[in-house]
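Hey, resending since the last one bounced:
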Amino acid sequence: MEMAAHLLVAQLRFARSEFVRCLEGITEEEGCRRVQSLNSLGWMVGHLANQENRYWVMLAQGRKFFPELNDLVGFRKPASTPSLNEMWSVWKSVTQAADAYLDTLMPEVLTTHFEWNGKTWDENVGTMLMRNTYHYWFHTGQALTVRKLLGDTALPEFVGDMSTVAYH
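The structure tokens again:
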């Protein structure tokens, strides 16, 4: 019998799916455009991949995976317009690697802290999981704004079908 993912992991996966749904149909050209001071859609995809990579691959698993990603789309790094298609490819690889860890999460782990370079990480695993989920919602809203400013009128409605993440 397969064990269901922890509720917080299920919520992260739902937030991911809504982010993906928000960007369905975006072309490579649209994904690389910056509108006013907003980051490009490709940057947003890479930026979320970067957070998952840092949390669930680097810290949780001790793996160096896409080490260049932080310089390209990291927090407080110079603006960039990476390829949307390339960032989706990275995002898919990172989330797959992250899921290898997330699938193992047990409730007692959520109150523990990662260690990095001999120092304890400030936030516990559960708080990091919530931060990651809320980060997706932030950029989903921002991505909808960018799509509107690009003139897109076929925007998805939110929040979508929650039947797969219903509270039990």
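The chain has a mean pLDDT of 93.

Sorry for the duplicate.
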